[in-house]
Amino acid sequence: MGIEAFVLHHRRGYEYPWAERSARTISEDELGPADHLVLPEIKAAALARRLAAAGVSYSVFVQNGYYLRDRDRGSCDADIDFAYSNATSILSISSDTSALLELHYPHLARRIVGVSCTVNQHEFRAGGEKKPVITYMPRKNGPHAAAVVFALRKRLPPGWQVRAIDGMSEQEVAGALRESRIFMSFSGLEGLGLPPIEAAMCGNYVIGYHGGGGREYWVAPNFEPVEAGDIASFVRKVTACAESIDGGRDASGLIPGITALQERYSAANERAGLERFVEAIALDAPARAAARPRGSASLKLQKRPSLRWWLGTWNARRPGQLARFAASGALFAPRRRA
Question: Shortest CA distance to 274 belongs to which of 118, 153, 164?
Answer without folding.
Answer: 118
